[in-house]
Amino acid sequence: MSKVIYKRPRYLKPNIFHYCPGCGHSIIHRLIAEVLEELDIGEKAICVPPAGCAVLAYNYIDVDMGEAPHGRAAAVATGIKRMLPDRVVFTYQGDGDIAAIGTAEIIHAANRGERITAIFVNNGVYGMTGGQMAPTTLPGQISTTTPSGRDLRRDGPPLDLSEMLAIARGSVYIERTAVNSPKNIRNTKRAVEKAFKVQLADLGFSLVEILSQCPTNWKMTPQDSLKHIDNVVTKFYPLKVIKDETGL
Questions:
Q1: What pLDDT, on a 0 to 100 scale, did the predictor assign at position 55?
Q2: Percent of the chain scored above 70 by pLDDT?
Q3: Mean pLDDT for all residues in the chain
Q4: CB of 222 closer than 8 Å to CB of 29
C-alpha cells in the first residue's frame, strides 16, 4: 500500500519558480499556500505584493492579488480590507520595500491596528534590483552600493523594523523566524498560521518577519548562506516572538 508523503498545496500553482538557486522565497510561498489550505481561507484571501522579488507572487500563490507600487503594499491592503472586511488580506514584502520605501505606510498601518497581515521577507539587500544596500544590511556587509562594506558612521546601523512596529499600539502580534533549516521552516509556518488567525479574530495588526537566504547577492553557495543566517544574521536579528497580545 502506497502512502502520500508529499503533495502540492491547493493554493500553490504548478509553475516553475524563477527565484535564484537557494533563495528562500519559494519555501515561503509554499508555507503560505499550505496555511491557506489548512485554515480553509484561500477562497477569501487577497495578497498584495509590491515591486521587488515578490512582484511575481501571483504566478505561484493561487489567490486573488492586488499589485501595489513599490513600498505601498500596506496602504493598498488597508484599502482592500476596509472595503472587503470579510476577506483575509495580507502583504508580501521584501526588506528594501517594507523597511525603506514603505516605512511610513507600514508604521501607520500598524499604529492604526489595521486588520491586515504583513509577511516581511528580510534577506538584507535589495534583491531584484541588483543587490544594493537595504536598511537591514548588516555592518560590514558588502553590497553593490557598499563595495567596502556597510559603514556605521556613514550609513548608520541596521534598522530593526519589527521592534519598531512592536511599539505601535495597534500591533498585536509580531514574530521573527527564518527558513534556513527544517526546524525554522516549521516555526515559520506556525507563525504565519497564527498571524492569519489574529486577522480572522479581528484583533489588530500582525506581522511575521522571515529571515531568508540570498546566495546570489551574498556571493555565497546556498549551503553557506544557510549557515550565515545562524552564525551572523541572527546575532543582529534574533529569532523570537517580539510582541504577542493576542491571547491565542
A1: 87
A2: 100
A3: 95
A4: no
Sign of the C-alpha dihedral computed for residues 232, 186, 66 and 77 taken in this order = negative
Strand partners, 92: 119
Of 82, 88, 84, nearest in space to 39 by CA: 88
Which residues, listed in sequence order, are joined to residue 90 by a DSSP beta bridge? Answer: 47, 117
* Residue-level pLDDT at 165: 98
Q: Are strands 171-178 and 132-133 parallel, antiparallel or unpaired?
A: unpaired
- In three-state secondary structure terms, 103 is helix
Neighbours of 157 (CB within 10 A): 11
Could you give the domains of the chain?
25-244 (3.40.50.970)
Report helix angle 103-112 to 73-83, nearest 10.
40
CA–CA separation, 40 and 42 (whole Å): 6
Q: What pairing do the DSSP bridges indicate for beta strands 88-94 and 240-244?
A: unpaired
C-alpha cell at 41: 481561507
pTM over 0.90: yes
Q: Write 236-241 long-range contacts (CB < 8 A, 24+).
A: 236/138, 236/139, 236/158, 237/122, 237/136, 237/158, 237/160, 237/176, 237/209, 237/211, 238/176, 239/176, 239/177, 239/178, 239/184, 239/187, 239/211, 240/175, 240/176, 241/174, 241/175
pLDDT at residue 23, rounded to an integer: 95
| CA distance to 42, 76, 107, 135, 172, per residue, from 168 (Å) | 29, 20, 7, 19, 9
The closest alpha carbon to 88, from 7, 177, 206, belongs to: 206
